[in-house]
Amino acid sequence: MTTNPVHTAGNAVPPLDPDLAGALDELAGIHPGIDLIRDGIRLLALDRHTADTTQTLLATLAGSAGADVITAIGHLVARLANADHNPALRALPLDTQKTTRLHGEHAAHHLLDTRLHQPASEASATITGT
Question: d(Cα 123, Cα 63) in Å, to the nearest integer?
Fold first, then answer.
């Protein structure tokens, strides 16, 4: 049986599109942790995937509220904006600390909103036919 191989030179993974490449470039040099995230995003974008790994990645990145990268980022934003967890903020005036914490909690709330996760979840489910 002859099949058309998916992994051929003519079916190479294309380079990053300008929007993603530009967004990653804008994040360069901010912090070693952000550089690791950039490297991970670049690897995920340029790696060759199967339909199964694509489905898993979509769910893991943003399609499984409570157990995905967006959820983790939401919790990180809340943590970084909270002087109880981020000693760098403790020297700020108390009202600034409280306002910063409130904004961080609001950001996390929005990032944890299931409506944000729904499109990626639906894309993931479409691949598996569920």
Answer: 8
Which residue type is seen at 48? R
Q: What is the tens place of the pLDDT at every residue in 75-130?
A: 999 999 999 999 999 999 999 999 999 999 999 999 988 888 888 999 999 997 76
C-alpha dihedral sign at 116, 22, 28, 91? negative
Q: Measured between alpha carbons, how far is 117 from 130 in angstroms, rounded to an integer? A: 16
Residue 55's nearest CA partner among 128, 116, 105, 104 is 128
DSSP characters over the chain:
-----SSSGGGPPPPPPHHHHHHHHHTTTS-HHHHHHHHHHHHHHHS---HHHHHHHHIIIIISTTSSHHHHHHHHHHHHT-TTT-GGGTTS-HHHHHHHHHHHHHHHHHHT-HHHHHHHHHHHHHHHT-
